[in-house]
Amino acid sequence: MSLDHPPPPPPSGPMPWDKPFALQRLADMLRIRRLEEKAAELYGAGRIRGFLHLYIGEEAVAAGALAALTADDAVVATYREHAHALLRGVPMAAIMAEMYGHREGCARGRGGSMHLFDANARLYGGNAIVGGGLPLAVGLALAAQMQHEPRIVACFFGEGAMAEGAFHEALNLAALWRVPVLFCCENNLYAMGTALERAQARTDLASRAASYGLSAFSCDGMDVVDVHETTRTAVARVRASEGPAFVEYRCYRFRAHSMFDAELYRDRAEVDAWRSRGPIHTFTTRLKAESKLGEAEFLELDAAAQAEVDAAVAAAETGQPETFAETLADVTTAGAAQ
Questions:
Q1: How far apart are CA 23 and CA 233, in angstroms?
Q2: pTM exceeds cut of 0.70
Q3: What pLDDT was estimated at residue 254?
Q4: Residue 184's beta-bridge partner residues?
């Protein structure tokens, strides 16, 4: 059968990492996958409401890219940001409570799934507006530059954002001012539900970004090794004060755009083909082939991820939403009524 977007061959070649680092990346992807699967289950049961955008299939991007950053760097993400929040150090219990709309959530239940936020983890959204995080990232990077702080800002967004004016404005200003921003494009080929080639006249996204004078890279977003190594190269450029950089992560989401998406724009055969080339499966296969992972070790990592999810759900179930009086906090500044 001919597919509109066939997956590339699975990654191959020797693993450039030692076993501890490799197993941590696998653990990261498993934590993301189990959290997202549980979120889908809870949404179907009516425990999570509102909008829900799952990251299943794209785990290698967050796991590989965020591992190239430091704890002092800042991250700006989209509404598909559970994975980024989790790997930035936001407790899974706080993420789950936020999705439940409880005060124990990282935004006290006010943001929900699309607006995870944690200043301590330097996670500045969770932004629901397509492309909305791009100018915010440039502003954060400009502030770091003006205060002489050795920090970069990683801004994650989908390829659909590249059709927004904010994308072009943000890249232009970032390049003009040479602020320390890493633009991370998660290209899952379909934006909301329109294939890339049906919406963009030029589908070589890295070359489009490079037209603004940025260092631009493209990599296999389904391969955590390629993601991490490419991101490390890009991050090094930004840290060396060579200006902002752009990375395109060519990936594929296995689930619909959101839980409201009827997903009529792509064939099931295409989704199944990409699933067979999923990031967890291919990475596990490589690790086992190099004797860096045994089946018992895999099961142990998976069990730990599931136990963390179960504990997070149990905590969220006992949480409570804010009271009416509490919801008025932070709406106005002190003395604003005078």
A1: 21
A2: yes
A3: 97
A4: 156, 247
